[in-house]
Design brief:
It is a single chain. Helix content is 44%, strand content 14%. By secondary structure, the protein is α/β, with parallel strands linked by helices. The protein has one domain. The protein has a five-stranded mixed beta sheet with strand order 4-3-5-6-7, with helices on both faces. The chain has a two-stranded parallel sheet with strand order 1-2. Helix 1 links the parallel strand 3 and strand 4. Helix 3 runs parallel beside helix 4 and helix 8 crosses helix 9. The longest helix has 23 residues. The chain is globular and about 45 Å long.
């Protein structure tokens, strides 16, 4: 990351004053979470850094899974924090976004213990997977779905969304997802969500509160143009 000036002082030129909050978002997934949250980067008052797991060319599915485990997320986060200053005073925050899936509880507890060290470090978990957060964009109640595993959640998401999941279509529904997921959360003070619950609404709410209603609405209105740019890049 480049040089950042924090706060207003007489000796700092106005054009170099830092007027945004940094959201450092560490993801277990390499597509859905990064695609969804990366688009918030560049909105007034917000800077988003996505801390992604390493992409492996391994044919072994087990090795690919290990590369995105909570312990690997923790390794990446520690390396990021060592190089980048996160200032709670400026509204900076760290968010680790992971799934319950089939990960050992010891790894999840270790990541939770790390994030508990600072008030502006957060762990948000989906049970069983990030698809639960996405489903709350479309549904207020998920109890009618037979979901036990991440595979189940993906299959349900594919069924309810004609043409498959596409993040550009889901972002305008983020406020619905925040409300639905929050209302469904039976234990909001516990870091570990129950099955069919997610804590990712806490990250969505934090982004929205930092943006404000007007900026969020402008962001949503700009999505068609953003989509055109994305499609142009894919054609190159």
């Amino acid at each position: 990351m480049g040089f950042k000036v924090r706060g207003y002082t007489r000796n700092v030129p106005q054009e170099k004053v830092r007027d945004y909050s940094l959201f450092a978002i560490a993801t277990e997934g390499t597509e859905r979470e990064p695609d969804y949250f990366r688009l918030f980067d560049g909105i007034d008052r917000i800077k988003v850094d996505i801390i992604e797991p390493e992409l492996l060319d391994e044919e072994n599915e087990q090795e690919k899974r290990r590369a995105s485990s909570p312990s690997k997320v923790l390794e990446k986060v520690k390396a990021y924090i060592a190089e980048n200053q996160l200032s709670a005073e400026d509204g900076d925050s760290l968010w680790c976004v992971i799934d319950v899936d089939r990960w050992p509880q010891e790894q999840i507890k270790e990541l939770h213990a790390f994030c508990s060290q600072k008030d502006n470090w957060h762990l948000v978990i989906s049970n069983p997977s990030i698809e639960i957060w996405l489903l709350y964009h479309k549904r207020a109640d998920l109890t009618d779905f037979d979901i036990q595993t991440a595979k189940d959640a993906k299959q349900v998401l594919d069924k309810i969304e004609k043409g498959g999941y596409y993040y550009i279509k889901y972002l305008p529904l983020m406020l619905d997802a925040i409300e639905n997921a929050h209302n469904a959360d039976s234990n909001p003070d516990d870091y570990m969500p129950e099955l069919l619950h997610t804590k990712v609404y806490q990250l969505g709410r934090s982004l929205y509160e930092r943006m404000g209603k007007v900026r969020f609405e402008k962001f949503i209105a700009s999505l068609p143009d953003i989509e055109k740019e994305i499609l142009k890049k894919k054609k190159r």
